[in-house]
Amino acid sequence: MQTAIPLILPFSTRLTKVDFPKFNGENVKGWLYKCDQFFSLDNTSSAVKVKLVAIHLEGKALQWHHALIKSRLTTEPMNWEDYAKAVAGRFGPAFDDPMSELMSLKQTGSVMDYMDQFENILTRVDLTEEYKVSCFITGLEYETQMHVRMFHPTTVQQAANLAKLFESVREYKHSKYSRNKNRFSKPSTYGQSQLRPATPSMALPSKQSLVHPSMPLPSKSRNMPILDKPPKVYRTAEMAERRARGLCMFCDEPFTPGHQLKHKKAQLYVVELNEGEEKDNNVEECIGDETIGPCIFVNAITGNSHFQTMRTTGYYNKQPLQILIDSGSTHNFVDEQVVKKLGCKAVAIKPMAVFVADGNKVFVTAICKKFSWQIQSTTFTTDCMVLPLGFCDVVSGIQWLSTLGPIVWDFQQLKMEFKVEGKKHVLRGATASKLKHADGKQLSKSLLQGGQSALLQLCPLGDNSNMVTSSLFSIFAEHSALPEAVEQLLNKYASLFDEPGGLPPYREGFDHRIPMEPGALPVNKRPYRYPSLQKTIIEKLMNEMLD
């Protein structure tokens, strides 16, 4: 007696006809889920599930099914559970760990994209609703995550709705900020009447105007004309060439003290809103919100003199330091080569932008905590940022000057007076050496004594003038007998002119002795007992100390 196989027809509902899902080897988990739903809806018996599936296979999936059936050693029909595992093993991923994927999932795009990825992984694991909510919130961006946690959602859907609302608000604020930024940063599109220099009779606006935050308020020359041409930005090589030639950074004229006054321009701008524009109630005061970085004038880097600076000499453990006292610098700086030479400890910090007076910006990555130096037997301690200065060792700015109290400063005489702990200090700035005129006798004497000299010749240039060139040759002369008075002086104080054979005499503050422990014996270990590598290093160190 043969058992009739029921005829498989597409399952029909009251509204539509449901076809069995086809499979070609792609998205195996989604296809298996559809098969289970169809079998549950159609009440399909276990005996015909695999045969029903085989009818709807295509491509490589059908080839695999045919090979699987032929490789079976039994003729009994295969049950659906074993067949589903075989299909998932053949067409599924090599390593499937949905829990690990769920824990490592992070939002990188929009909330909708994150929800799609989260739900795709969620279909492969069985979790409680509380754990689902925790995993969903943990994967959100930090700002969105904190906003969602504030409302304590109990379901994934509630958390997703809160995240989408916060994303919409943030996008709205960003678009409004971009619109206001374009409005204020491009005043020329509003016409000539939108941007104008502030005059003394103009009152500062409160809500309908905005003062540019990146420009300080000038005390004078508020009604000067505004230059439409932006300042030119030079490359590093171009700027180095202009510094070498001594040219101004804003024009082609030579830079001299006071030359920057020619380029002084108005720095207070007022932007007024049109009457027809929507007033933005969210615009806040911008003055004082922007963090101003440390400022150091360009003369501290290029070595040029400035009427707000004064050079003096200090000491760090008896090592002389060239200190530039600069009232235009906000912070203190120390040259990086000086830090290495003195062996100071530099602490790494987060890169900080330092704005130079010529418009450039350099970055500071280290700072010397409690850097000390001595001036007139008084020790000063302050923090100094490490920066390649080149033409001075230390720059003392307002950070150090503010600790001195009242200061009397005469820039004409390069004289500075202040009191520290009741002791009065008077600092005098070093003046630049000037060229001196030397006659032939003085020049000959200098050459005989081994001095270095240079000859410069100035002559007119013209069509009818003949240029006469001159040359300076080396002059050698035999040592002549010294005058009798000099010979007597040398013989009288012969001990002073003899070649030193011991330590210099003791002076206050300079003790040349090397104190040793009483009864200490010298090291009695011969160099040849060291390995060759150590011997080479020891000899190198000894030669360096002797030199």
TrEMBL record:
UniProt-recorded name of the protein: Retrotransposon gag domain-containing protein
Domain Retrotransposon gag: 51-141
Coiled-coil stretches: none
PANTHER family: LDOC1 RELATED, REVERSE TRANSCRIPTASE RNASE H-LIKE DOMAIN-CONTAINING PROTEIN
One Pfam family from the record: Retrotrans_gag
Matching Gene3D superfamilies: Acid Proteases (2.40.70.10)
InterPro entries in the record: Aspartic_peptidase_AS, DNA/RNA_pol_sf, Peptidase_aspartic_dom_sf, Retrotrans_gag_dom, RTL1-rel
PROSITE patterns, sorted: ASP_PROTEASE
Residue spans of biased composition, Polar residues class: 185-196
GO MF term list: aspartic-type endopeptidase activity
Region described as Disordered: 177-228
GO biological process: proteolysis
